[in-house]
Amino acid sequence: MAKRWLHSLDVEIDENGQAVAEKALQEIESAMAVQEFAGGDSVEVAAAGFTDVLEVVLEGKRDILTFQVAATENGTDGFKVLVKSHASADYIDYLSDADFNSLVLANMLFASTTGPHELSAGGKALVVINVRGAYAVKFQASATADDAHVAIKGTAGRA
């Protein structure tokens, strides 16, 4: 097989001249594409402790998460983002509560004035964070009262 430049990338071209290049382009486009995620309609969140709301597997292929957190029926009084560095690794706290109010955290790119940790019933928050290299991300929430519902929708993309 010969090597040729294709869209500024060094890829191998097979005897047919396309099979390897087409596959490489598909893999590149897949890696560059935005990945959407959503936790369904909503997840019931209890007032005691944190409840897992959504897990997003990134496989280290996405850098930036932009997501909306919406609370219905009752508000939130806690919110965490946890990251996992490998499929077999444990989740580690990455951002929580007051971190969403910070203006100096390098991994917090944007958070709406009302953060996801302090939403009232019917409230929404928008957050943009850097999770470069993470295998997966998990979102957890706690509520001001039982029977709260939290929904998360967003996208994961490359920086």
How would you explain this protein's 3D organization?
The protein has 159 residues and is mainly beta. The protein folds into 2 domains: 2-32, no CATH class; 35-157, Jelly Rolls, CATH 2.60.120. It is built from 1 helix and 12 strands. It has one helix at residues 19-32; strands spanning 2-6, 9-13, 35-38, 43-45, 51-57, 64-72, 76-84, 92-96, 108-111, 124-130, 136-143, 148-157. Strands 3, 4, 6, 9, 10 and 12 form a 6-stranded antiparallel beta sheet that branches. A 4-stranded antiparallel beta sheet has the order 5-11-7-8, with no helix packed on it. A two-stranded antiparallel ribbon has the order 1-2. It is elongated and about 65 Å long. It starts with a strand and ends with a strand.
